[in-house]
Structure formats: C-alpha cells, structure tokens
Amino acid sequence: MKSGIVPTRHEVLLGPQDVIVSKTDTTGRMTYVNRTFMRIANYAESDVLQKQHNIIRHPDMPRGVFKLLWDTLKDGREFFGYVKNLTSAGDYYWVFANITEDLDASGKLIGYFSVRKQAKPEAIAVIQPIYEEMLEIERKTGAASAPVASVAMLTDKLKSMGTTYDKFVLTL
C-alpha cells in the first residue's frame, strides 16, 4: 500500500445520522474535515489537513471511478457515487458521496465540498461487483491506461443498460 496502511476486513458502519463533510482545494488537498470525518476515518484534523484526499482511498476502489469523478468535476458538474474508504487503522467504510464545486464570491473555483452519507447495503451489493470488474480490467491494463480502460468498460456497461453513471447511482 502506498500509505503503508494494511487493509483489514473490519467494516465501520455509518449510522443514518452520520454526515461526513470535507473540503479540498482544487488539487484535492483537504482544507476542512468535520468531526464525523475524524471519528469515522480515525484521523486527527492535523493528520489530514493539507494532505491529498486520496489518503482514505481503499485499494478495492477502481482508479477509474476517481477518473470519472475528476472528469465530472472538471466539466463543472456535481458528482454522485458510492465509495469504499480506508480508515487510519485499515478498516473500511462505504459512503454515498456528493461532491460539488466551492466558488468564491466572484464565482471563481477555489475547491470542492464533499458530503458523504451512509451507503445503502442493497446499493453496495449492486455496485461492488461492478467495481471488482473494473479492478480486474485495471490489473490487466498498464498502469497509465488503467483508469481510462475501466471507465470505458463502466460506460459501455451502463450504456447497454440505457443509463449513465449519474443516473445509475441515483437509482440504487
């Protein structure tokens, strides 16, 4: 693992009242985390501020999902998606994420807000096999083209179902 954290098989469950909030600059460095983030991810505020948000990226998450996330944000659209995150102890937790632009008073992009809530178990049951398929494609493809290849597979799969990623995750 890049972070040195060894993933466990222990899941941290969010309650329906848990709302994880973080804010980043335009490059993904955290500039704010709420207490729920610190409690669930098991990090002190000083351990994460000015660090890349991907510090909590679980290795079970396909890189293609994050390519899709960044492509969506760069298009000026908000992102919705299911994400498996990693705690500082190696435990994991699933969230339903909504990421939006943070604009200053003049309308200039200064970063992003991410609000995450409890993921529905039935949604995880649907999305997890798709993410596993994306990971398999990424393993078989060279590192440089892995995210593009897995997004292409995801896009093709969803197109054959008559939907897009945005519409798909919002219906789960």
Short structural summary:
The mean pLDDT is 96.
How would you describe this structure to a colleague?
A hairpin with a 5-residue loop joins β4 and β5 (109-118). It is built from six helices and five strands. The protein is of the alpha+beta class.
The beta-strand count equals 5
Q: Helical residue percent?
A: 25-40%
| Distance between the ends | 30 Å
Count of helical segments? 6
Looking across the biggest beta sheet, what order are the strands in?
A: 2-1-5-4-3
Mean pLDDT: 96
Order of helices and strands: EEHHHEEEHHH
Q: Layout of helices and strands, plus pairs?
A:
Blueprint: E1 19-24, E2 30-33, H1 35-41, H2 45-48, H3 63-74, E3 79-86, E4 92-103, E5 109-118, H4 121-140, H5 146-160, H6 165-171
Helix pairs in contact: 3-5, 4-5
Describe this protein with a few key phrases:
single chain; five-stranded antiparallel β-sheet; 6 helices; alpha+beta; 172 residues
